[in-house]
């Protein structure tokens, strides 16, 4: 009997917590769309140098192995 009462009490408290927290104001702030951490042109520049630099090193390595 004591176990059932405890479970019922826990359910009642849980429902109260859920109903109280759901009605509160939202505290999270929305990040403006204009402000991003990495600009698109900076990302493109990084990718360009990564690809070109990798290809240059690959060409140099193949030239060294051929000679």
UniProtKB/TrEMBL annotation:
The chain crosses the membrane at residues 41-60. Residues 1-33 are annotated as: Disordered. Coiled coil: none annotated. Its main location: membrane. Pfam families: RAMP4 (PF06624). GO terms for biological process: endoplasmic reticulum unfolded protein response. It is a single-pass membrane protein. The keyword Nucleotide-binding does not apply. InterPro entries: ER_stress-assoc. It comes from the Eukaryota. Keywords: Endoplasmic reticulum, Membrane, Transmembrane, Transmembrane helix, Unfolded protein response. One of its GO terms (cellular component) is endoplasmic reticulum membrane. It is found in: Membrane; Endoplasmic reticulum membrane. Interacts with SEC61B, SEC61A1 and the SEC61 complex. Interacts with CANX. Interacts with target proteins during their translocation into the lumen of the endoplasmic reticulum. Protects unfolded target proteins against degradation during ER stress. May facilitate glycosylation of target proteins after termination of ER stress. May modulate the use of N-glycosylation sites on target proteins. Interacts with target proteins during translocation into the lumen of the endoplasmic reticulum. Protects unfolded target proteins against degradation and facilitate correct glycosylation. Belongs to the RAMP4 family. This is Stress-associated endoplasmic reticulum protein.
């Amino acid at each position: 009997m004591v176990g059932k009462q405890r479970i019922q009490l826990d359910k009642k408290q849980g429902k109260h917590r859920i109903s109280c927290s759901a009605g509160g104001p939202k505290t999270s702030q929305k990040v403006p769309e204009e402000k991003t951490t990495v600009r698109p042109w900076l990302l493109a520049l990084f990718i360009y140098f990564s690809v070109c630099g990798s290809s240059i090193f690959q060409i140099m390595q193949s030239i060294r192995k051929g000679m």
